[in-house]
Design goal:
CATH topology of the largest domain: Serine Threonine Protein Phosphatase 5, Tetratricopeptide repeat
CATH superfamily of the largest domain: Tetratricopeptide repeat domain
Low-confidence stretches: 728-736
Structural class: alpha+beta
Mean pLDDT: 89
CATH architecture of the largest domain: Alpha Horseshoe
Strand content: 15-25%
Oligomer: single chain
Radius of gyration: 32 Å
C-alpha cells in the first residue's frame, strides 16, 4: 500500500499522530509536495489553539505548505488548509483570503472535502472578527449567534422566539449606544437571521416583514456576494406578490454566488412564471448538478413541464414524506399553507370587480394589508381586509357585495347587542372601523370616549356565539399554570416528590413518565384536584419568559436571569367541584416544591418572572390558611402620557375579570397597594364586580367600575377609579 493511501486511512480513523510519525521520518528534502500537504493536514487536526504546543502545530502546518505555493497555490486543499491554520492562530484577516479562494476552487460533492457550507462558516466568522478588530459596530456577538443557532433545533425551530430575541438584542444595543437602529437594519448577518425566521413562519405578514427589513442590507449583501440573502429576499418578495422584483433579485443571486444551490430553485420558479420555460429548466439542471437527485428540483422540473403556475409550485414541503402527506390531503396545516400561497398571484380582473363592489373613496394596497375608506351613511368608514390584493382577488365577489349591502344591518345588530346583551348602553357609541379576516369572519369596532368595544360576526353574517364575544366573555377559572425556569434542562422527580411530602405532607405516588424529547411528567390527584408537573428540556418558546420578566419592577435582574434558562418545569393544577381557592393553594405548594431543584432561576407566572426567594417568602402566608395573594396575582405598573397605571395579572385563573387603574397621579407603592387590596377583596369575599357599580373602602367612598376592552390586557377588564387626594384624606381621617 502506498504511503499516501495509508495516511488517508489513518486520517479517516482520526489517527493523525501516525501520519505525523510516518511522514516526519522522511528527510525534509525528500518529501513530495503532496506528502507535505498531507502532513500539514495532520498537524492541523492535531493542533490546539488553547495551548502553546497546539499552536506550534498550526505554525508547522504553514511552514510545510508555504514552499509549495507555486505548485499548489491553485489547489483547493492547499488553500483550505492554509486558511485553517491561520484561522486557529487568530490571523483571521489572512485566513479570509485563503478560505474565499478555497470556496472558488471547491470540487463539488466529493465527501473527502469540507462542504461549501462549512467553508462559508469560516468566511463569515473571519469577517465578523475582522470587523471587531477594526472597531466596526457589530450587532450580533458570537454569543448571540450561538443563542440563535440553538433555536434552530427540530424541523420547525423556534422562529417566533428567534424574532423576539433579535428584536430585543437590537433594542438593547441601540439603548446602550453600541450601534444605531439603521446600522442594525443594514447589517447582513442580522438580515439573514431575521429573514430566516420570518420566512419559516410561512405567513403573509412575516414575509412582508422580511422584505421590509432586508431592503436596508442590500448593499452589504452585494458586497459580500451573498447568494443566500438574494434567495431569501426573492422568496419574501414572491409571497408579497412583488414578482418582477423577485425575479430581478433571484437572477442577481445566482450570478453573484453561482455555487449557492437553493438560489436556482426560486430563480427557476420565477422564470417559469414569466413564460421562460427553457431558462427555468436550465436553472433546475444547474441545481441538480450541485445537488444531484434533490427532491425539490426533480419535483419542480416535472411541474414546469406540466405547466403548473407559481402558487402550485409553492404548494410543497421540503421533506419528501411530509410533502406526500400534503399532496394527499392528509396535512392538517394545508389550510395555513394555502392562505400564505394565495398572496402570490393577483387576479386583476377579479380584484377590480371587488373594488367596484366596495366603491372605496381611498385605497391603500399591501401595506401590508388592503386598507380603505368605505362610503357609509353621511361620511366614510375605515375598513381593512387582513390580506394583500393577491389574496383579496380570490375572495368571493358575492360575499363582498352581500357584506356591503348588509353593513347597516350589521351595525344596528352590533349596537343592539352591546346595549341589550352586554348591558353597556349605546349613548355616545360610534362605529369607527371594521375588519375582515381571511376566513371571512369580521369584527366591528365601536368607540365611546377612550373605550373600545368589539362585536364579532361569523362568515354567514350571524353574531358569533357569546363565548367569542369580547364584551361578554368572562374567564372560567379553575386552571393554574406556572413555569419554573431551570439553568440546565434536567430535574430530579424523586427529589420533587420528597420535597412535596416533607414540606406539605402531600403524597405523589406515581412514577414520572419519560417522553421522546428527554422530558418527563408526573400526573397525580390531590383531594380530587388534578396536578401535573412536567420537565421540558428546552426554554419557554417564543421568548415569552424573557419578555415578561421585564414587567417585574421589584427585580432588576429578572430579564437577564430569565435569558439564562435552558429548561423548564411546567406546573399546573386543575380545580374540581368549583373549589378554586384550594386549587390555587395547591398550585403554590407544587411550585415551591419544584423550587427545591438544582439551578432554579425564576418562576414565570402571572405575566412576569418572580425571584425564587420572593416567591417562597410570599408563600408563607399559607401557614395560617390565608390565600398567598402575591404568588397568584401580579400587580403590574406602567406609565403612559396620562399618568401612572396599574393592572392585575392572575385574577382570570379564579374566573374573575382582571383590574386596571388608569392615568393616576399616585405614588407607585400606593397604587400597587390599592390594586392588591381590591384583588384581595374580590378573591377573599368571592365578589364579582360589575360594570356601572362602585366600590369603596369607607362608607362615603364610591369609586366607579367600568367594564370595557382592556388597555394592558386583551379582552375585557374592569377599570377602577382611583380615589382623589381629598377622598384619600377622608378615608385616612375616618370621615364618612
Amino acid at each position: 500500500m502506498e504511503l499516501l493511501e495509508q495516511c488517508r486511512i489513518w486520517h479517516e480513523n482520526d489517527e493523525h499522530q501516525k501520519i505525523i510519525d510516518a511522514l516526519e521520518a522522511i528527510p525534509e528534502g525528500e518529501r513530495t509536495p503532496e506528502q507535505d500537504l498531507e502532513l500539514a493536514r495532520a498537524y492541523n487536526n492535531q493542533g490546539d489553539p488553547g495551548t502553546p504546543e497546539g499552536r506550534a502545530m498550526f505554525q508547522r502546518a504553514i511552514e510545510l505548505m508555504e514552499p509549495h505555493r507555486a505548485v499548489l497555490g491553485e489547489d483547493y486543499s492547499w488553500n483550505f488548509r492554509m486558511g485553517y491554520a491561520r484561522y486557529y492562530l487568530d490571523r483571521e484577516e489572512q485566513a479570509l483570503g485563503y478560505f474565499q479562494r478555497a470556496l472558488e476552487l471547491h470540487p463539488g460533492d466529493d465527501p473527502q472535502y469540507n462542504t461549501e457550507e462549512e467553508i462559508r462558516f469560516f468566511i463569515d466568522d473571519c469577517r465578523r472578527w475582522i470587523a471587531v478588530q477594526s472597531g466596526e459596530r457589530i450587532v450580533l456577538t458570537p454569543e448571540d449567534v450561538e443563542e440563535l443557532e440553538g433555536m434552530c433545533e427540530g424541523p420547525s425551530g423556534y422562529f417566533y422566539k428567534m424574532l423576539s430575541y433579535l428584536e430585543e438584542t437590537i433594542r438593547a444595543g441601540v439603548r446602550e449606544g453600541r450601534f444605531s437602529a439603521a446600522q442594525a437594519r443594514a447589517d447582513l448577518e442580522v438580515a439573514l437571521w431575521y429573514s430566516y425566521a420570518c420566512n419559516n413562519v410561512d405567513e403573509y405578514e412575516y414575509y412582508y416583514r422580511a422584505a421590509d427589513w432586508m431592503s436596508d442590507s442590500e448593499q452589504a449583501a452585494e458586497a459580500a456576494g451573498s447568494g443566500i440573502w438574494y434567495y431569501r429576499y426573492a422568496c419574501a418578495l414572491t409571497y408579497c406578490s412583488r414578482l418582477e422584483e423577485a425575479l430581478v433579485y433571484a437572477r442577481k443571486g445566482v450570478e453573484l454566488d453561482p455555487g449557492y444551490v437553493w438560489g436556482y430553485l426560486q430563480y427557476a420558479k420565477l422564470l417559469s412564471h414569466f413564460g421562460k420555460q427553457q431558462e427555468a429548466l436550465a436553472a433546475v439542471d444547474r441545481g441538480l448538478e450541485l445537488e444531484p437527485g434533490d427532491y425539490e428540483f426533480t419535483t419542480l422540473r416535472r411541474e414546469i413541464l406540466e405547466g403548473r403556475n407559481l402558487e402550485e409550485m409553492e404548494f410543497h414541503w421540503i421533506d419528501p414524506e411530509s410533502d406526500r402527506k400534503l399532496q394527499a390531503g392528509m396535512d392538517e396545516s394545508a389550510g395555513d399553507k394555502k392562505r400564505a400561497i394565495s398572496c402570490i398571484l393577483c387576479r386583476r380582473e377579479a380584484l377590480e370587480e371587488i373594488k367596484a363592489a366596495l366603491a372605496p373613496v381611498e385605497w391603500e394596497a399591501d401595506a401590508p394589508y388592503c386598507t380603505f375608506r368605505l362610503p357609509y351613511q353621511n361620511g366614510s368608514l375605515l375598513g381593512r381586509f387582513f390580506m394583500n390584493e393577491a389574496a383579496l382577488s380570490k375572495f368571493p365577489l358575492s360575499w363582498v357585495r352581500e357584506f356591503v349591502r348588509r353593513l347597516p344591518e350589521l351595525d344596528r345588530r352590533g349596537r343592539t347587542f352591546l346595549a341589550a346583551q352586554a348591558g353597556l348602553g349605546t349613548e355616545g357609541l360610534s362605529l369607527e372601523w371594521f375588519a375582515v379576516h381571511p376566513d371571512r369572519t369580521m369584527r366591528l369596532c365601536y368607540i365611546r370616549g377612550q373605550d373600545q368595544q368589539m362585536v364579532l360576526f361569523d362568515r354567514d353574517f350571524s353574531l358569533c356565539s357569546e363565548d367569542w364575544q369580547p364584551a361578554l366573555t368572562r374567564p372560567e377559572g379553575g386552571a393554574f399554570l406556572a413555569f419554573v425556569l431551570l439553568e440546565a434542562p434536567a430535574w430530579d422527580p424523586d427529589q420533587f416528590r420528597r420535597d412535596l411530602r416533607d414540606l406539605y405532607g402531600i403524597p405523589c405516588l406515581t412514577e414520572a413518565e419519560e417522553s421522546e424529547d428527554g422530558g418527563s411528567t408526573l400526573t397525580f390527584e390531590v383531594s380530587g384536584m388534578l396536578a401535573a408537573v412536567c420537565l421540558y428540556p428546552f426554554p419557554v418558546p417564543h421568548g415569552e419568559a424573557e419578555e415578561n420578566a421585564a414587567h417585574n419592577y421589584l427585580w432588576s435582574e429578572a430579564q437577564e436571569t430569565a435569558r439564562r434558562h435552558r429548561g423548564q418545569i411546567l406546573v399546573s393544577t386543575m380545580a374540581r367541584d368549583g373549589d378554586v381557592g384550594q386549587a390555587a393553594r395547591l398550585q403554590v405548594k407544587l411550585v415551591c416544591a419544584a423550587c427545591g431543584q438544582d439551578g432554579v432561576l425564576g418562576i414565570y407566572a402571572n405575566g412576569t418572572v418572580y425571584q425564587p426567594e420572593f416567591y417562597l417568602e410570599a408563600a408563607q402566608m399559607m401557614e395560617d390558611g390565608s390565600l398567598p395573594l402575591l404568588n397568584l396575582v401580579w400587580p403590574g405598573l406602567y406609565r403612559r402620557e396620562g399618568g401612572l397605571c396599574a393592572y392585575t395579572e392572575g385574577l382570570r385563573a379564579f374566573g374573575k375579570d382582571e383590574l386596571e387603574v388608569l392615568d393616576t397621579r399616585a405614588e407607585p407603592g400606593d397604587l400597587r397597594g390599592f390594586v392588591l387590596d381590591i384583588a384581595s377583596y374580590v378573591l377573599e369575599q368571592d365578589v364579582t364586580l360589575r360594570d356601572g357599580e362602585t366600590i369603596g373602602f369607607s362608607e362615603g367612598q364610591k369609586l366607579p367600575i367600568t367594564r370595557s376592552a382592556g388597555i394592558w390586557h386583551d379582552g375585557m377588564t374592569l377599570k377602577i377609579g382611583y380615589p382623589s387626594k381629598e377622598e384619600g384624606e377622608d378615608e385616612n381621617s375616618g370621615e364618612t
